[in-house]
């Protein structure tokens, strides 16, 4: 199995060499950044593998994701659409159908689209249209009985706007379509379902790795505070990495003086959402054949709100007003920084000896690590007026099946070779990409304010003062009443 992964990495290196004049190079060597003995690069002089503080051993072997993906693709109904042009509308095609193919992910996306087009004998065209314009044009097409597009890629937060104007097909009614397939993210379809209807679904074809948030940590600061970074990695693997665990470390960091404990930048506005969801809580409980209801109470969310209060009131934490937080972390002034994965590339030459962790759980008993996807993460939907829903259903199934696993694997392999500094961080990145989580409130709250007011808006507002109980009861009643009306169990 180890040999198999080594061979796979050699192949990955060959691919990387094709678009980098440097080829297989060591860009995660931090010897020029003031590295200490615990932060040495994974390769020494002459390209020989050397042991880091955790021991450089290839991260856990995975199944052959490419073979699994091909098996899923082969299991779909065989179709020949005779060269038909298939249109996909999206606000941003950067991840799904990029024009620039300089990166590994963009090349794989273009290759996947070509494979699906060949398998189904279609010509796939992807148009960029702002979400508001997309909705307006779709409404006009439905009203006039004309064609707009075969398939939609819409931001998650806009699903409610499309539902409000009755423009989306119930995906569960599409022929030869099975939302229980493993190449769909099951929680995404639950979070876009209400009553008898499922409005949208996500998969590896729609969710860029950049959509995931993570915890970046400074190994040097933690070591100086008397915390073994390897123990944190072990805690993640053992399911013991919790917000209380993180807070216990920040107490030790404060004793050092002069360092930030926890910071955030791009995720600042939705930081409470990330803590809330990763702790195992849900704003809204819903799913197929269910009327959505507010999924938490003041009592059930008390631990989450306590965690948020501790972070917001920590004089050394900056999670809402620090525009240069990434820079501060890069320069070695911050213990923990919560940020999207795209920030990894900014830290290649960072002075900080950094590692990577998933968002902590609420408790050891919490079932799994969860990363709430941002509102602009894209999901597939089918226009209500499509004359043959089988075609978009099979095409989007093929696109997700043809993406499953191996595209994310390539992303992990690339960052192992070029960005990450220790083997354990590679394991963490692999884990993070399995934690995609969604919430009904984020999909429908923008279009139905009563839902937002009882969920993420309220939690964001109350997080610094831990004052949720003052407004929750009335807002929950309003939200539940609205959802009973809008997502009832009648046809």
The count of domains is 2
Instruction: Report the top-level CATH class of the largest domain.
Output: Alpha Beta
Query: How many beta-strand elements?
Result: 14
Look at the structure and give the mean pLDDT: 88
Distance between the termini: 52 Å
Q: Hey, roughly how much beta strand do the residues contain? A: 5-15%
Strands side by side in the biggest sheet: 2-1-3-13
Helix content: 25-40%
Shape-level CATH architecture of the largest domain: 3-Layer(aba) Sandwich
**Anisotropy-based shape:** globular
CATH topology of the largest domain: D-Maltodextrin-Binding Protein, domain 2
Radius of gyration: 23 Å
Q: CATH superfamily assignment of the largest domain?
A: Periplasmic binding protein-like II
Structural class by helix and strand composition: alpha/beta
How many individual helices? 19
Give a written overview of the molecule.
The protein is an alpha/beta fold and 491 residues long. It has 2 domains: 75-208 and 375-415, Periplasmic binding protein-like II (D-Maltodextrin-Binding Protein, domain 2, 3-Layer(aba) Sandwich), CATH 3.40.190; 213-372 and 445-491, Periplasmic binding protein-like II (D-Maltodextrin-Binding Protein, domain 2). Helices cover 39% and strands 12% of the residues. It contains 19 helices and 14 strands. It has helices at 2-17, 65-75, 104-120, 131-144, 159-164, 186-191, 219-224, 229-237, 243-256, 271-278, 302-313, 325-330, 390-401, 406-418, 423-432, 440-444, 449-454, 456-462, 472-486; strands spanning 84-90, 122-128, 151-155, 193-194, 197-198, 213-218, 260-264, 284-285, 293-294, 334-340, 354-357, 371-372, 378-381, 436-437. The chain has a 4-stranded mixed sheet, covered by helices on one side. A 4-stranded mixed sheet has the order 7-10-6-11. Helix 3 (104-120) links the parallel strand 1 and strand 2 (122-128). 47% of the residues are buried. Residues 1-59 have low confidence and may be disordered.
């Amino acid at each position: 199995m180890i040999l198999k992964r080594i061979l796979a990495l050699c192949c990955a290196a060959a691919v990387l060499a094709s678009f980098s004049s440097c080829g297989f190079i060591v860009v995660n060597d931090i010897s020029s950044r003031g590295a200490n003995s615990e932060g040495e690069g994974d390769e020494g002089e002459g390209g020989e593998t050397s042991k880091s503080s955790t021991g450089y051993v290839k991260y856990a072997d995975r199944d052959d994701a490419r073979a699994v993906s091909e098996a899923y693709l082969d299991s779909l109904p065989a179709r020949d659409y005779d060269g038909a042009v298939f249109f996909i509308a999206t606000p941003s095609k950067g991840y799904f159908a990029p024009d620039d193919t300089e990166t590994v992910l963009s090349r794989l996306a273009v290759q996947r689209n070509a494979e699906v087009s060949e398998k189904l004998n279609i010509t796939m065209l992807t148009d960029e249209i702002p979400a508001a314009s997309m909705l307006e044009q779709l409404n006009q097409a439905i009203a006039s009985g004309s064609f707009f597009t075969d398939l939609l890629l819409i931001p998650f937060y806009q699903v409610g706007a499309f539902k409000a104007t009755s423009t989306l097909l119930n995906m569960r009614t599409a022929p030869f379509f099975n939302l229980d397939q493993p190449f769909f993210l099951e929680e995404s379809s639950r979070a876009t379902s209400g009553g008898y209807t499922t409005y949208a679904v996500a998969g590896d074809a729609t969710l860029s790795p950049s959509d995931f948030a993570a915890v970046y940590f400074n190994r040097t600061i933690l070591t100086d505070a008397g915390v073994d970074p390897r123990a944190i990695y072990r805690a993640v693997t053992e399911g013991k990495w919790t917000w209380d665990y993180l807070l216990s470390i920040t107490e030790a960091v404060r004793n050092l003086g002069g360092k930030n404990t926890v910071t955030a930048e791009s995720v600042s506005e939705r930081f409470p959402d990330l803590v809330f969801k990763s702790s195992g809580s849900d704003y809204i409980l819903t799913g197929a054949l269910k009327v959505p209801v507010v999924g938490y109470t003041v009592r059930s969310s008390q631990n989450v709100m306590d965690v948020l209060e501790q972070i917001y009131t920590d004089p050394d934490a900056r999670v809402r007003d620090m525009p240069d937080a990434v820079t501060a972390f890069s320069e070695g002034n911050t213990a923990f920084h919560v940020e999207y994965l795209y920030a990894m590339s900014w830290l290649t030459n960072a002075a900080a000896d950094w590692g990577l962790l998933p968002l902590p759980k609420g408790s050891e008993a919490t079932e799994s690590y969860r990363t709430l996807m941002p509102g602009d993460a894209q999901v597939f939907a089918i226009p209500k007026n499509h004359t043959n829903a089988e075609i978009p259903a099979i095409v989007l199934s093929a696109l997700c099946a043809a993406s499953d696993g191996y595209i994310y694997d390539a992303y992990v392999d690339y960052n192992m070779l070029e960005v990450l500094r220790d083997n354990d961080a590679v394991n963490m990145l692999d884990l993070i990409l399995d934690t995609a989580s969604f919430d009904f409130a984020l999909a429908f709250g923008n279009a139905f304010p009563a839902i937002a007011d009882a969920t993420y808006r309220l939690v964001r507002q109350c997080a610094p003062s831990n004052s949720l109980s003052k407004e929750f009861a009335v807002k929950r009643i309003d939200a539940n009443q609205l959802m009973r009306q809008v997502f009832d169990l009648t046809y």
